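Quick start: what a row looks like.
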Amino acid sequence: MPKVGSSTGWKISAAFVIGAVFGAFVVAQVAPNATKQTAITQAPGPGATTGGGGPNPTTGPGGSPLPGQTTGSGVGPSGKNLACAAGRNGGATDKGVTATQVSLATTVVRSGIGAAFLGDVQYAMEAVKNKVNRAGGICGRQLSIRYVDDGWRSDLGSQYIRSFIKSGVFAIPVGPSSEGLNVAISNGDIRNAGIPVVGTDGMIISQYRDPWVWPVAVATASSARLMVLNAWNRGARKFAIVFDRNYKFGSEAATAFNNEVKRLKHENVDGYNSQNNCLKSYCGIDAGQPGYRNEVNTVASQDFDFLGMFLEPKTALTWMATPGAPTIANKVQKAGMIGLAQPLFTRDFAVNCQSECHKMWVWTGYKPPIEDYQNDTVVRTFVNDLRKTKPDADENNAFAQGGYVGMLLLVQAMQQAGPDLTRARLKQALNSMSFASGLTLQPTLRWPAGNYFAASTMQAFEIQYSGTFGGWRAQDIVKDPTPQLGTG
């Protein structure tokens, strides 16, 4: 089990319900346990495919209601809500909604550099969609999702999103390809269209500041801050960072990382520059290059006792394969004093990095199917659902978990909206609900108007490698109480 705090802490456990589709309701709870937890404070100084189809019953196993099948007026002798049955659900209630189908569309990453950590998200989304549709859909409506590969390109992704809006889909689920979505949000396309973007996992700060976007992930800015604070509390005083400067998540991480160091030490990371060049201990690099000898030499020559790495997997593996790349063994000599961002929480990265990544800590906002979490009922359900959809998908991939959670949020919100499914009713449901998926480290997520930073808790897992990859070991849980700071 992870250690939290100096003497006391909490073990987070939760389960949830999505009607009869996802089983019995179990109340989220927080039970005492010896897990180590730290909170950030202000105190310390110095290509398109579609899905759908399936049977369309009005009740689930044992006659219990399916998602959106509420009780009340209109309930017949059988106990079914006739207003929520197929063909009696209000028909075409909004854009992308008919009596039999809800049309959704999103950009995914099946090609390019981002596919290494975003490629499996589509299959996690499909796992939820297929499960819902097999059980009859939501109020008799099947879910249909159009997936378009944009290669994690901001220009192409934003173009596709504008086409989704023009075509009249009901909502954008999860939005796995964060770069294009960021452009669409920043340009006002999402807000002006009033199109819900539900369950995002891209971690970019714009997703937390648009009233039509509901994130389930911990923001990159929070992950950078909590990484610095956790290292500070474990004795680090000299900080370094390497990051993808041509992707938004990397540049946002660098800004937040430096701001947290400055808050603690009253000075910038050595070499900090607004151009995000590789100078001293502050090293922005271009992703996807064949080698990083000069940049590795620059960072390795500096005096630091903590290094944060905000890279996607392909670039990180190239960096770590460069002679002299900083490791726990050759540089900081203390487990966890090289921290890895959530995109590096994949089995492929850990296996291929080999001994160079031994004892590095990789951070996630979800409960991966390892250590004690692998016996968690909800975690096992996620794994089984993902395997049914794609047997070789990486169940340890944090972004796959995020895609699954994001789809569950959309399903539960549509349940609450009921048979008269409109974008406005969906928004109202999302802004008023408490969501306990059982897969986020934070037991309950909420999105009250004006504060969409629902998740702010992450956990570190230590990579084990001794001749072969030996898995991850649970470490500290950290909560950011001021996620609204963003990158400022």
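That is the whole record. DSSP finds 14 helices and 19 strands in the chain. The domain at 221-364+457-485 is CATH 3.40.50.2300 (Rossmann fold).
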